[in-house]
Predict the structure.
Amino acid sequence: MSDPSAPDRPGIGAGGRESGKPGDSRTDAPSTTIDEPDPHRWWALAVIATAQLMVVLDATIVNIALPSAQRDLGISNGNRQWVITAYTLAFGGLLLLGGRVADLVGRKRTFIIGLIGFACASALGGASPGQEMLYLSRALQGVFAALLAPSALSLLTTTFPGGNDRAKAFGIFSAIAGGGSAIGLLLGGILTEWLSWRWCLYVNVFIALLAVIGALTLLRDRAGAKGAHLDIPGVLLGSGGLVAIVYGFSRAEPQGWTSTEVLTVLGVGVLLLAAFTWWQTKSPDPLLPLHIIRDRNRGGSVIVMGMTTIGLFGAFLFLTFFLQTVLGYSPLSAGLAFLPLSAGIIIGSTQISARLLPLVPPRALLVPGLLLSAGGMYTLTFLDIHSTYVGHILPGTILLGFGLGLTFLPVISTATMGVAPRDSGVTSATVNTAQQVGGSIGTSLLNTIATTTTTAYLTSHLAEAAREGPLTPAERTRIVNTGTVHGFTVAIAWAAIILLTAAVIGALMINGKSPRARAAEEEAAAKAAAPDAGR
């Protein structure tokens, strides 16, 4: 399937130059091309990667700190979810808006505004005297993350438009996007155990400050699009639909999938997104131009990203609980236990995918990567209360991490390749939206499966054991732990199935050629056209 936007998107030819529509004031090509690379591009990558790490790790760094914050601020069990949900609601719901704002006012400007706002929101959260301010600060973090994340990825796309440098840069970025969540668990454990849960928020101030200084001195960008207008109906419909979907999935675990609240909110979300899709075909300045996701490879990449994130969040969620509740690990030890998974993602992204992506089609990396990830996830379904970290968890997490490392780079690179500069922000936002919504779905869907499976197990086994006589505390604990782990393994099995399905979708939808093959075809076409040009 061809991309209808092909005539006005930048073409990377044999000579490596980026071309746009002459005379189109909206195109505004970036300030550097492959022939004239930005001399500070690798320092720029460090700035972009630092900001991305802050956004990604903040989705998990608070998880380990949550029990301490709950005790300190007197948050009830029913309300503690809002520390997480306030962030994901604002982040996931406003990403498309943030991407379009970056396209309209300039990516560098939006990037810096996002950094400063995120730092201020983090400082506010760290100083929270009560739960209400903490919820507000987390929501504000999500708002500014929705500005920061798409502008970071679109800056990366335009700083490294093609060639081997692009593969290397995206390899590093993908390693951070995939491994940042695990780093957040580790950093959250260190800060909570050695300082205070408040430092899980204060730490963002220092990270953001470094990134702002780097952005002001190192990043280059085009001006915003002239004469363009923000699609206000699209903002209301799209953001409203995404917020409703994310909120509905977040409420599925405590309320149940068949509750009136969940079904109503999800139904409203679907209707709003359907209306949003219709409006994008009518709007003169659409929030999400549909040609972006109509492209076969880009649309497939977005779907694969969402499904992969479901599996990844499933691993984080259940392994964190298993390590702390069954094996008795401290928050710091639990964070350290995820380092091999992060190492697998980093090695797979930077040492394998980044080296091979210029030479092979994207699906030659992502399909084996997803199969390895599904296999690693499947090995974790054999966990029981007698399992050990080294003998049972470590092999599966290494395999999972390595597979994800092979997957993230080709998915992110394919989703953002060949997009017109004026649409790079919203394209990046679409990828981030798939990741964020996938994480929300993964957390709620798999957690609901685990909870209902555990409840059914305990209901039958505790009743059966009670018929044989009174249970000792040790026997009850053993049955409860066994039922809990049984729920984990059933949910993990579903995560493995989802990863396997993502591999099938990737194999069927993503059929793009390798950069080397595309360059050879363009060079041959240029040579064939040369005689005609001279006539």
About this structure: Confidence is low (pLDDT under 50) at residues 1-35. The first helix runs from residue 41 to 57. The first strand starts at residue 11 and ends at 12.
